[in-house]
Write a structure and sequence with these properties.
Blueprint (H helix, E strand, L loop, with lengths): L4 H6 L6 E2 L8 E4 L3 E7 L5 H11 L8 E6 L3 E7 L4 E2 L3 H4 L2 H16 L12 H13 L21 H10 L6 E4 L8 E4 L2 E5 L6 E4 H16 L3 H11 L5 H11 L3
Antiparallel strand pairs: 1-2, 2-3, 3-5, 4-5, 6-8, 7-10, 8-9
């Protein structure tokens, strides 16, 4: 992958390693002290991610933006490398209850961010428009959906799912959300959340959007171990709303 000369100079021509652990839709390259994300300019959300992190840095630990560069083909975002490891690192997974407590801490950090002046909209109206656009351009991969989303006991196709989502919109409990709150995006060290990454979908939305993806991420890593889910809601000090969790998991299938 070509890296612009201004980024090469900034990183002292260090050769990065391609990251294969994270879940970003961008190509991610790891330096000793930096992280570089590269995305096709036609589909890139890196400009928004840059703007979100600049806005967020006064509230929570996020990477520092060092360089942003666009060419006719690609967008490049160079950031500082945060300390800590992802919550999907084996050293964290080996202590599942502590890991779930850290995920809860991260959620509460996001919810404490004031939204009155937040310029980023991730509400249902906005997300449903994105879903409709993705369906219209054929950018929904049903093979990557959860097993029960489509088929005999699920929806016929993405159009059928979209119609359901439009007609069953829940009340929104608005907070600042990450909108892809899963284990690889939460960084921890010494039993503390030291950073959150990948903010290209972030903005004001219902808190259950993040809770739903957090629950799914726990299931993906541990199976349906309900004690961990109970522990999550104990740490959050709320009761689970399974209707909203299901709704936001279905919504995510089209985003």
């Amino acid at each position: 992958m070509y890296i612009p000369i201004n980024i090469q100079k900034f990183t002292m021509y260090e050769k990065p390693k391609k990251d294969r652990m994270g879940m970003s839709s961008s190509s991610v390259y790891i330096y000793q002290n930096y992280v570089l994300k590269i995305h096709d300019i036609k589909e890139s959300s890196l400009r928004k991610e840059k703007d979100v992190m600049i806005w967020l840095k006064r509230y929570i630990p996020v990477p520092e933006i060092l360089l942003y560069h666009e060419t006719k083909s690609y967008a490049y975002l160079l950031m500082s490398k945060l300390d800590g490891v992802m919550t999907c690192d084996q050293s964290v997974l080996d202590q599942p209850y502590e890991m779930v407590s850290l995920l809860a801490k991260g959620l509460k950090m996001l919810w404490e961010i004031p939204i009155e002046q937040c310029p980023f909209d991730a509400t249902l109206k906005n997300k449903l428009n994105i879903c409709k656009h993705n369906i219209d351009i054929g950018d929904v991969d049903v093979t990557q959906a959860e097993d029960d989303t489509y088929g005999k006991n699920g929806f016929k196709d993405p159009h059928d799912l979209y119609d359901y989502l439009v007609s069953h919109q829940p009340d929104e409990e608005l907070v600042f959300t990450h909108s892809d709150y899963c284990l690889p995006n939460v960084l921890v060290k010494e039993n503390q959340v030291v950073g959150i990454i990948d903010f290209d979908r972030a903005g004001i939305a219902c808190k259950w959007a993040d809770i739903a993806l957090c629950v799914r991420s726990i299931y993906h890593n541990f199976g349906h171990h309900e004690d961990y889910i109970k522990h999550l809601f104990h740490e959050l000090k709320i009761e689970p709303n399974w209707d909203k969790i299901r709704y936001y998991l279905l919504l995510d299938e089209l985003l």
